[in-house]
Amino acid sequence: MNTAALTLRDITDLEDPDFSDWLDLYETAFPPGEKLLVSTLLKYLNRISSGEETALHMSVLQNTSTSFVGMMVYEARPENEIATLWYFAIKPSERNKGMGTVAYQELLKHLDPAVYRALVFEVEIPSKENAEEATRRIAFYRRQGALMLEGIEYWQHIGWHHPPTLMHIMVHPIQPLDPEQAFALAQNVFGDAVQRRGELRLR
After folding, report:
1. How far is 194 from 164, CA to CA, in rounded Å?
2. 158-201 pLDDT, tens per residue?
3. CA neighbours within 13 Å on the CB side: how many for 203?
4. Cα 63–Cα 68–Cα 69 angle in degrees, nearest 5
5. Edge to edge, what strands does the sheet with 68-77 contain?
6. Beta bridge partners of 61
7. Which residue of 128, 135, 159, 195 has the lowest C-beta tally within 10 Å?
8. From CA 16, how far away is CA 109, in angstroms rounded?
9. Spatial CB neighbours of 60, under 8 Å, sequence gap ≥ 6
10. In angstroms, rounded to a whole number, what is the distance separating the alpha carbons of residues 156 and 56?
11. What phi, psi does 103 have (nearest 5°)?
């Protein structure tokens, strides 16, 4: 398969032929403590299908034959000069083929460097339960050019149905950024859920 030809396509209504596969991957690829309720996603999709302007993109990753190979949820806010990657997964049968790298770079192509200063996102903190997978995921994002924002504490809030989860924040600079600027952008996205706890560093 020619992974160089992967593309992102936004889902715009419930009748999208790939929506069931998108939703199945969302349901199975992420820990329960990191997932928004499906009803929340459906509300966003209804807003999109009604023609309402929204910064949220619920996107399908496709190969050259338009087959479903992955999903993303991201926000692009040019007025705030920042984009946020909320969810990103490749379906299990298509992993370890380089698609994750191509998909991530495809997302970056959608972010005009004259407009956006950074892409920010959450990642799990490695623990006894998830050490290998979480460490591998962080290494993947670092290979793409993302940096860990250190000197902070961030608690992820996904809704009333789950207690907050302590997470890392990573920043992919699109324009040159120092740690203070990266922290300010993170606060723009996550608000008071992210707090300074020491010397700020990007590495």
Report:
1. 12
2. 999 999 999 999 999 999 999 999 999 999 999 999 999 999 99
3. 5
4. 75
5. 7-10, 56-62, 68-77, 82-90, 118-124, 165-173, 147-156, 194-202
6. 8, 70
7. 128
8. 24
9. 8, 9, 10, 11, 16, 18, 22, 68, 70, 71
10. 18
11. -65, -45
Tokens of 18: 């790939």
Return the structure tokens found at 121. 């996102």
pTM: 0.95
Condensed to tens digits (0 to 9), the pLDDT of residues 21-80 reads 999 999 999 999 999 999 999 999 999 999 998 999 999 999 988 899 999 999 999 999
Q: Cβ contacts of residue 176 below 8 Å, gap of 6+?
A: none
The strand pair at 194-202 and 147-156 is best described as antiparallel
CA distances from 3 to 31, 69, 141, 199 (A): 27, 11, 18, 40
Q: For 18-35, write each residue's pLDDT tens digit.
A: 999 999 999 999 999 999
Residue 4 to residue 39: CA distance in whole angstroms: 34
- CA–CA separation, 110 and 55 (whole Å): 13
